[in-house]
Design brief:
The protein is α/β, with parallel strands linked by helices and 422 residues long. The chain has helices at 2-10, 41-46, 71-84, 99-110, 128-134, 154-162, 177-180, 183-190, 192-199, 211-215, 260-273, 278-287, 314-325, 346-358, 370-375, 387-400; strands spanning 14-15, 26-28, 51-54, 65-67, 90-94, 116-118, 142-146, 166-169, 203-206, 222-225, 231-236, 239-244, 249-252, 296-300, 303-307, 332-337, 364-368, 382-384, 405-409. It is globular and about 65 Å long. 43% of the residues are buried.
Length: 422
Amino acid sequence: MEQLYQFFLDSKGLSIDSRSIEVGQIFFAIAGEKFDGHKFVDEVIEKGATKIVIHDEAYTRGDKTFLVNDTLECLQKLAHHHRMQLDVPVLGITGSNGKTTTKELIHVVLSKNYRVHTTRGNYNNHIGVPLTLLAAPKDAEILIIEMGANHLNEIDELCTIASPNYGLITNVGLAHVEGFGSYENIIKGKTEMYRYIAKAKGCIFYNDEDRVLTKNLPDETNCVPYLVSDIEFLYNYPTLSFIDTELDEMYSTKLFGIYNQTNIEAAITIGRYFKVLDEDIFDAIEDYIPTMNRSQLIEKDGITYIKDAYNANPSSMKLSIKSLMNFGTKSKCLIIGDMMELGEDKIALHKDILRYIAGYDWNKVILVGPLFAEANKDFGYIAYNNTQELKNDFDDLSAQIHGSTVLLKGSRSMKIETLIED
């Protein structure tokens, strides 16, 4: 490991993607479900890779290659080794909903005082976490590592790689039920972070109004509740605002959805913990512009779209629907797509969403995907098998919903956001 780490230090970084490899980088030949990186060894040599890490001897290319037992395991161990050279706070973030938005809010807040390195996009799995750690510059003062999971023990494994000394769970909801097996297992899986932080004698930030999270806090651990008693939140059209009650000053965010309140509370709490001035914290949150199909507001052709289509599960779907109902506009529409990884109860959970929708008054409800189509047999909403089918009718439908506020929500594979992309 020391020899490989020295290669890494002397390199210009590393990559697992032959398409983006740069001169002077190390290439890790990861064998995945769709592609085997070993097949691109000769290509990356031609592109100027200084070292290629392999586990298949058939691809040995003299001193250009570095043979290990398993390239993925080696990548993870190298990332952990690099992290341990960085004597800085490392904040791990997980949860069923809001991980990425919370991470981004904390990033902009802490960046007011510190050099912060954080997970890019949603690189939050067994490959993304190591890549995030290995991209951390030597002068980083704080690391923020997002961790996702769809089965038990995954958060513990990611914590073992990243060794966080601070931890935050945004919430625990009905996400990835198929992989976890039950809601109880989701709780057990997400709170693996709490147990890791407790063993590491670190610090946990938590929402003290969340019964599930407070119930699972470990004993004899430094646990810091959200420090927001002086903040009052308002949900005004079209986004969240909050008031600093001590100074009686209002800040308007660019975030749609009441569910973003706790994400903001987390950022305020962690900013205050790390001694960022309130004025800087609030300015950073006010200036933050959401991206990546998360809580984005788009005005197009006389329609206000809420593009919250990065992913969906029953918990986040209900919160988005509830948030839309708080909008000041009278004409409200839903375009919602199937929710994935829900296991054997998937149809029942989609029916539950339709019952929830039926409790409100909508201008139009449009369902997309075979799961909603099956669940819709008892309801009679407009339904399409896939997004492309809806696209074919979308010009006519757009005329019908002109002047409305429309929620676009669905799991990633549904690509609901493409309805309004040119």
